[in-house]
Amino acid sequence: MSFAPPPGSPFGGPTASGTPYAGIPPELAERAQKLLEKEPEHTVVVPEFTHDVPAEPTFTIRRFLAPSRWPLVFAFVLVALETVTLLAGPLLVQLGVDEGITVGNTDVLVKVGFAFLAVIIVNTLLGWARGTWTTRVGESIMERLRMRVFTHLQRLSLSFYEREKAGVILTRMTSDVENLTQLFQEGLVQMVVQGLTVVAIAVIMAIADIRLTAVIFGLLVPILVIATVWYRRESKDAYDDVRDRVSDVLGDLTETLSGIRTVTAHNRAEHNVEHHETLVAEYRSANLVTARIGALFGSIGDTVGIFGQIVVLGVGGLLVRDGQMSLGTLFAFLLYLNLLFAPVQQLVQLYTTYQQGQSSVTKLAELLDLMPAVVESPSAVELPPIEGHIELDSVDFSYRDSEGRPGRPVLSGLNLSVRRSETLVVVGPTGAGKSTVAKLIARFYDPVSGAVRIDGVDLRDVTLHSLRTQLGVVPQEPFLFHGTVRDNLLFASPNATDEELLDACDAVGVSDLVNRLPHGLDTAVHERGVSLSAGERQLLSLGRAFLAKPRVLILDEATSNIDPATEAKVEHALDLLLEGRTAVVVAHRLATAARADRIAVIDREPGRDPETTGAKVLELGTHDELIALGGRYAEMFATWEQHITRPPETATPDSTNAQTGSTGSRSGPQA
Asked: pTM for the full model?
């Protein structure tokens, strides 16, 4: 591994953003190189991903740990050995008192002392080995869990993300996984350590003196059992509530950060702080409940431990006085009693960790049990190279709410055919279902009834990979990932050559933008592309889609955020790039519609109840044919022409979106 910092790297010189020394300055580069040379080589694992949902039983701790059973068995062996060395101490004390101090035998005391030292050393080494091994096994288990959850999230359908809060999903991957990290790395092993310790101590005490052992366990164990049953019942609900409250906090944080521009623009910072304070206060209250329950349970354990020592001193002292027990045995009993209640106290704390982990297991099980709304058929076949004939046959569709119940109809009996190499523009008022048509063609959703076919093949009968690798989708709101401009352009086609990359930039008119950036294609793009304008993000999104060379291109209002000058460049690029390809364009701007091969007007039929009837294709034809028809499209186009020819000072807010007969643009499932 060598170190040679390139220009703009965080190891030397200015970064792509122009900030000097944003990472490691050059004077520290040599030391950084030495650290890198000491780093072990990491094996690169290439996971296999399929859209098939594995037939796995409900997620539980036992089932999840099953593949790691043998490493865990070895960990328990180390635990057993560590417990044995821990319990040898009181036995050596008993031997030293009875055979050394009481009879004045110095040799025995010396031998016991060296034996005690050896036990301490062995116990320390076993503790180090056990800690190292369990951490390694725990991290391996957590890596598998994180990949399982992330893979499942990648497999879930778009409908899940449109109804679930981002913060709740983030909680599953962060807080819940971290709870299980603590449980798997040390919690479970320590529970075994302390459990074995309690059992072993009970056996040794019974062998030493069954009478004193019976008194201790007869008085103390029932109290501990009753307290444990109470704690288990109360803490379960309390920790479930904590998990819900932390989800609310993270969800509000994620939403606020995502919409920080809107928050700032509308001066809602104070309101957001008040709202977040309420959520944090609820989270604090939930944690206080668990703290009070744990403190009460812990105090019961402390009280029982002190009471146990009093019993041992009282009853044991009488037995020693009467010559029925040796002094060394009494000392050993006291030490074992301390060793008995220390693990009990630790078990209380570990049970808290277990309850937190169990609550997280419940939440993760609910997530992992979710099935994608769009499922790849077990008999799905590879879709051959697309010719481009798209057909929606008697399609009914409605979105589902958070509980999976269907909402009001969006599409009802919609029939639409897109010819090979044709550009079809879909227009209509906001909420009519234009974007829904695009999502159905990309198979983001499946119709409730009817079928969507490409080249006569039902999309439900082909693999998702073979379908989507031949589709290019440009949404209304483009998303850019953290990385460079080059990374974002290559996102859908990572193996494209530099020549293909530059050709795509020229085609969509993004070359001027790239040339203006400080480091061209290697300029850093901040998360979500916030350092670029909306039009620039849209141009890069178009370039990303075009570089993938799709057989079918779906543009969902892709030019809505582009200024007129940039739109002219894109329209010119579209004339070249759409040649020989089938394109479905959802448009608000009727200038785009007028250039299309055909136009489909989607809306509900007049007089139909929107609660029971969805939209369908009301008009279909070329621009000239629909103008001559004098129907809905002709009315929309006349309104649009009036708007664009009206002097700016006479324009009214209500005419802003008259081009589609709507009063605004709305994203989401209803669009």
From this structure: 0.70
- Please give the single-letter amino acid code of residue 159: S
Contact 293, 238 (CB under 8 A): yes
Rounded distance between C-alpha atoms, residue 637 and residue 589, angstroms: 10
> Are both 78 and 128 inside the same structural domain?
yes
The pLDDT tens digits for 57-101 are: 778 878 888 888 888 888 888 888 887 887 777 777 767 777 777
Answer with the one of 324, 340, 368 that is the final residue of a domain: 368
What are residue 309's phi and psi, to 5 degrees?
-65, -40
User: What is each CA distance from 331 to 88, 215, 309, 320, 334, in whole angstroms?
Assistant: 14, 17, 11, 11, 5
Same structural domain, 329 and 200: yes
Give the C-alpha separation, 57 to 150, whole Å: 18
* Residue 74 CB-half CA count within 13 A: 13
The owner of tokens 């006085």 is 321
Distance CA 394, CA 412 (A): 7
- Give 492-543 as a DSSP string: S-TT--HHHHHHHHHHTT-HHHHHHSTTGGG-EE-GGGTTS-HHHHHHHHHH
In the chain, the largest separation of any two C-alpha atoms, in whole Å, equals: 121
Structural domain of residue 264, as residue ranges? 61-368
| 108-to-157, 201, 358 alpha-carbon distances in Å | 73, 24, 50
